[in-house]
Write a structure and sequence with these properties.
heterodimer, A: mainly alpha, B: mainly alpha, 6 helices, 0% strand, flat
C-alpha cells in the first residue's frame, strides 16, 4: 500500500478531490443536523450525485457525508434537544442544558473539538489496523471465510435493539432476499416465479432506501408532526479555551478509546459507544455531580466516542467486507455501484483507491473543525424547517437515488414495497439493520459454505479439522450469538419455572 | 383489552404472516427438478437452511406475541395510507408521466396530507424542488431523469 501512496495522494490533492471533501463534509453536517435523516439515509440520498464521479472522489464524498452527518447530529441535539442522528442522543443530556443556560455556542464548541479529536484518532486507527487485518485475511480459504462471515453475522444480535428473535428473523429474511435470482454456482433461477425482473435479484440499495428512508417517512407521518420547533438563540460556535480543557484530557482519551474499540466490533454502533462513554465519564469524572445539568465532560464523552466509531467501523468494512451496521452496509453496497468489489481482497486489488480513502478520511475529520464552525451557523435556521417539507424532500431524493443505481424502474417498485413492509415491521419492533446485514453478507456466506462443503465431500464436521482459525472464529460466533439471548432469556425462564 | 383483540390484532396477524411466508416459499421449492441435485450443489441448499431457520424464529415470535400482554398502540393510519398510496403512484408515474410532473404531484399530495395549508408555499416548493433536481441531473450532471411519454422537454 505504501508503494501506491504517491498515486493516492494525487487522487486526493486535486482541485476536484479537495472540493469533494469540502462540499461533502459540509453537506454531511447539514444533513446530520436535520432530525429524521440520519447517516444511512444521508449517504443513500447523496449516492446518485456520485454516479458521474470517478471511484475515489465518489467514495470520498460518501465518507465525508458519513463523518459529517455523525458530527452534524450534535447541532440539533444541542439546539433543539432532538438528536439529528441516534449517535448524538447522549449529547442531548448536557448539550441542551448548556443551551438553556445561554451557552449553545460553547456547547457546540466542545462537541466540535471532541468530534475532531475522536474522528482523527479513529482515522489513524483505520490506517494502521485495516491493512494488518486484511493481510491476515488474505490467507483464508472458503471454510475460514465462512467462519468469518458467520462471526460477522452475529452482529445481528447486537443491532437488534433488545429484540433478538425479531432481529434474527430479519437477518434470515435478508439472507433469503439475497438468494432470490440466479444461483451463484449452477446459474439456475431461484424464487423468481417466472418473473424475469427477479432474475438479477433484489437491488440492495433499493431495499435499504425503502426500509430505512421511505419507512421513516411513513413512521413520521403516523406520528403527530411538530412544525414549531423551539430553538435557543445561537450566534455561532465558540471554541473552549485551552485552560478550560484542564482536567478533561483523560475523559477525552478514554472516550476516544471506547469509540475506536467499539467501532471495530461489528454491530455495536456509534449510539452504543456514545452511551457507554457517557456512562463511564459520569462514573469517573471529577465533575460527575454536574452531569445532566450542562457539563462539558458529558458532551466530550458522547461526541468524541461517536465520531471515533466511524473510523473503527470502517476497519472490518474495508479489510474484511463485513459491515458493522446499516450505514457501513450502504457504504459497501455503494462500492459495488462504483465497480469496487468488497471483500477480503479489496485492499490488495484497489491499493490506490483505498490509500486515497485513508488520506481523505483523515482530512475529512480535520475539516470538521473549520467546517463545523461555519456550517453550524448556516444549518441552525434549517432546523426551523417544517417536517413535512423535509419528508417530501427525502422521498424525492430517495426515488432519484433508487432510479439511478441501475436505471431500472423495477427498483422503484422494490423500494416502495420495502418502505411499506418496513413501516409495518418497524411498528411491531422489528429492527431493519439485520435485514440489510443479511442481504450484504448472505451471498458470501452461501458461496463459502457451499464451496467448503464441496471441498469436504459434504462433511460439515471436516470444517473443524485442520482449520484452527475457522474453529476459533466459529466458537467466537457461537458465544456472541448465544450470550445475549441466554443472558436475557434465562432470568425470564427461571421466573416462569419459579412461578409454576 | 378484549379476548378477541388479544388474539386477533395487528401483532398476531403479522406474526402469522411471517410464519406462513417462509412455509409457502419452502413448499414452492418442492418438485423442482434442480432441487434434486445433491447437497451443497443444489441451488435450494442454502435458501432452505435460511427458510427453516426463519420458520423456527417465526414460531418463537408468534409464541411470544401470543403470550405478550403489551397493548397494541393505535396510530392515525389514514395519513400513512395516503402517503403509502402516494409512494406507489409516484413509482408508477415516474415512468409514464416523467420525473418532473410525477414529483410535483407527489409533493403536493404529501405536503397537503401532512397538514401544510398555504397554497402558494406548497405549490412553490412542489414545483421548485423537482425542477431544481431535474435541471441539475439532466443539464448539469448529464444523468437524464425519466421524461414524460408525450414531450421531450420534461
Amino acid at each position: 500500500m505504501l508503494q501506491s501512496l504517491p498515486q493516492s495522494l494525487e487522487l486526493v490533492f486535486t482541485l476536484d478531490g479537495l472540493l469533494v471533501l469540502l462540499f461533502g463534509t459540509a453537506l454531511g453536517i447539514v444533513l446530520g443536523a436535520l432530525p429524521g435523516i440520519g447517516s444511512t439515509v444521508a449517504v443513500a440520498m447523496v449516492l446518485p450525485f456520485t454516479l458521474t464521479m470517478d471511484q475515489a472522489p465518489a467514495v470520498l464524498t460518501l465518507l465525508s457525508i458519513y463523518a459529517g452527518s455523525v458530527y452534524g447530529g450534535s447541532i440539533s441535539a444541542i439546539l433543539i434537544n432532538t438528536p439529528g442522528t441516534p449517535q448524538s442522543a447522549a449529547t442531548c443530556f448536557d448539550g441542551y442544558p448548556m443551551a438553556q443556560q445561554g451557552k449553545a455556542g460553547l456547547a457546540l464548541g466542545w462537541s466540535t473539538v471532541a468530534s475532531v479529536v475522536g474522528g482523527t484518532v479513529s482515522a489513524i486507527v483505520l490506517i494502521f489496523a485495516a491493512p494488518q487485518l486484511a493481510a491476515l485475511a488474505l490467507n483464508f480459504g472458503p471454510i475460514e471465510i465462512f467462519a468469518l462471515i458467520l462471526l460477522g453475522m452475529t452482529c445481528i444480535v447486537s443491532v437488534s435493539e433488545g429484540a433478538v428473535v425479531k432481529g434474527l428473523m430479519m437477518g434470515m429474511l435478508g439472507i433469503f432476499l439475497s438468494c432470490v435470482g440466479g444461483d451463484p454456482i449452477t446459474g439456475e433461477s431461484r424464487f423468481t416465479f417466472g418473473n424475469y425482473k427477479l432474475i438479477a435479484g433484489f437491488n440492495l440499495l433499493a431495499v435499504v432506501i425503502g426500509v430505512f428512508a421511505l419507512s421513516e417517512v411513513l413512521i413520521r407521518a403516523a406520528q403527530r408532526l411538530d412544525n414549531t420547533t423551539a430553538m435557543f438563540d445561537f450566534k455561532g460556535l465558540v471554541l473552549p479555551n485551552l485552560s478550560e480543557w484542564r482536567g478533561r484530557g483523560r475523559n477525552l482519551a478514554k472516550s476516544v478509546a471506547i469509540g475506536c474499540g467499539i467501532g471495530v466490533l461489528p454491530g455495536t454502533g456509534a449510539a452504543t459507544a456514545a452511551f457507554i462513554s457517557y456512562a463511564e465519564a459520569k462514573r469517573s469524572s471529577p465533575n460527575r455531580a454536574n452531569f445532566g445539568k450542562g457539563e462539558p465532560d458529558g458532551i466530550v464523552a458522547s461526541e468524541s466516542a461517536n465520531n471515533a466509531v466511524t473510523g473503527g467501523a470502517l476497519v472490518p468494512t474495508l479489510a474484511l467486507g463485513i459491515p458493522g451496521d446499516a450505514v457501513t452496509a450502504v457504504m459497501l453496497a455503494t462500492l459495488t455501484v462504483h465497480g469496487i468489489t468488497p471483500g477480503i481482497r479489496l485492499m490488495q486489488d484497489n491499493p490506490v483507491v483505498i490509500g486515497a480513502i485513508f488520506i481523505g478520511f483523515l482530512l475529512i475529520n480535520l475539516l470538521l473543525l473549520p467546517l463545523g464552525t461555519l456550517v453550524s451557523r448556516v444549518s441552525a435556521p434549517l432546523l426551523r424547517l417544517p417536517e413535512p417539507y423535509m419528508l417530501a424532500t427525502i422521498t424525492v431524493f430517495c426515488m432519484v437515488g433508487v432510479y439511478f443505481v441501475n436505471g431500472n424502474p423495477f427498483d422503484l417498485i422494490v423500494a416502495v414495497i420495502a418502505g411499506i413492509v418496513g413501516f409495518i415491521l418497524r411498528r411491531q419492533g422489528f429492527p431493519m439493520a439485520p435485514l440489510v446485514i443479511g442481504m450484504v453478507l448472505g451471498p458470501t456466506l452461501e458461496i463459502s459454505l457451499r464451496q467448503g462443503l464441496i471441498l469436504t465431500d459434504g462433511q460439515f464436521s471436516q470444517f473443524f479439522v485442520g482449520h484452527p482459525i475457522a474453529v476459533v472464529l466459529m466458537a467466537t460466533a457461537a458465544i456472541a450469538l448465544l450470550y445475549k439471548p441466554i443472558k436475557q432469556g434465562l432470568p425470564a425462564l427461571l421466573a416462569v419455572v419459579r412461578g409454576r | 383489552m378484549s379476548q378477541s383483540s388479544r388474539w386477533l390484532n395487528e401483532r398476531s396477524l403479522i406474526a402469522v404472516a411471517l410464519l406462513l411466508i417462509p412455509v409457502a416459499l419452502l413448499l414452492s421449492t418442492q418438485g423442482l427438478t434442480f432441487a434434486e441435485l445433491g447437497g451443497a450443489f443444489s441451488p435450494m441448499f442454502f435458501p432452505s437452511i435460511a427458510l427453516w431457520l426463519w420458520i423456527g424464529l417465526a414460531g418463537l415470535n408468534l409464541l411470544s406475541g401470543v403470550l405478550s400482554k403489551e397493548p397494541q398502540q393505535a396510530a392515525p393510519l389514514w395519513r400513512v395510507a395516503i402517503i403509502a398510496l402516494g409512494f406507489v403512484g409516484y413509482a408508477w408515474a415516474i415512468m409514464s408521466l416523467g420525473f418532473l410532473l410525477s414529483s410535483v404531484l407527489f409533493c403536493v399530495l404529501c405536503l397537503i396530507s401532512l397538514g401544510m395549508r398555504k397554497p402558494l408555499v406548497v405549490a412553490g416548493f412542489s414545483i421548485a424542488l423537482p425542477a431544481v433536481l431535474f435541471i441539475l441531473f439532466n443539464h448539469v450532471l448529464m444523468l437524464p431523469l425519466p421524461r414524460s411519454s408525450w414531450t421531450h422537454l420534461f
